[in-house]
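User: Quick sanity check before I run a bigger batch. Here is a single chain. Can you write out its predicted 3D structure?
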Amino acid sequence: NLEQELASVRQQLDDANKSACHEQEQLQRKLETVATEKDELLAAKAAMKCEIESLESNVADITDAREAETRNLQKELAEKVLMQKEMSTLKSEVSEITATKEAAVDNLEQELASVQQQLDDAKKAACHEEEQLQRKLETVATE
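Assistant: Done. Predicted structure follows.
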């Protein structure tokens, strides 16, 4: 009876050892799987970190380029505004010069008309004087 109990206990111990060994093997395989997954995740994390750094660098480059383009556009706009102001000033000056020229032309035309009138008056007066002198000469000649 004791031998049977001892054999039974030994069988149970042997079964427990086999079960424990089997569980230990399963746990070892799980541990290896988890370690592999951990390595894969760390590798993925490192790759993601590199990608993030690359993207951050790209963002910085794009930001710098955008800021440079903004400065260039602001400079170009300022130059265009300045050119528009200069053109406006030139147009104003041209308008003033044109108005002054037109006024001068009007004055010259009026003076020319006045001089022509004086010339016509002088011609008429000279003709009249010539006629008077001719009559005097004829009168003196007949006398």
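The mean pLDDT is 95.

User: Great, the batch can go ahead then.
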